[in-house]
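Suppose you are handed a protein chain with no further information: no name, no annotation, nothing but its sequence. What can you learn? This example shows the usual starting point.
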Amino acid sequence: MSHKPLSEQDYQRLSSILARFAAHGCMSLEKLDGFFAALLAGPEAIRPAECLPLILGDAFDDEAAFPSEKSLEQFVALLRGHWQDIAEALKHGEFQPWLEAGADGLATGNDWAEGFSAGMELLNDDWSLLFDAPDEAPLLEPIMLLAFERHPDPEMRPLADGIDPALREELLSALSPSVHGIHDFFAAIRRQLEQEEQELEREEPRRPH
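A reasonable first move is to predict its three-dimensional structure. Written in structure tokens, the prediction is:
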């Protein structure tokens, strides 16, 4: 069945629902986009419904958050639609991060990168495969620089003086190629594992019992 992308109206609805729960620690649409990008480009896809507590923050346990079962279902359907939009974009080499402009009209990319970093934490051990790959590890650099720029511990911030506008522009334009590179890296590993499993299955009957 072909996927029907979310409309602009759908995205406005999703954004306003997320914004309604901002005080509960809910992700913004930008942060959610980074989070889903990490889950889909990374080692193993985790379904959106499994991540509701992380997405909604304290609103997940608030019975008054959604007035009815149907309104919660509609919200989950919007999440799935956005998830599928990212999956399709990655498959066709067209992924672009959803970056919101601030009051000054400029995007910083911090929310998106922090969302991506939160997605990585779910499968921390598996992501170490990328950190340990000398040729591909630099793909994470633009994401990590933006993700840790606002870290509460100054020691954890990669650049003591922050990111200047020229470097920020460079980092933001590197996000899309980085995500595609990360997606290709883990897709190749998955293909290799599948091949090895198939070969083992083919050899199985020949073994003496």
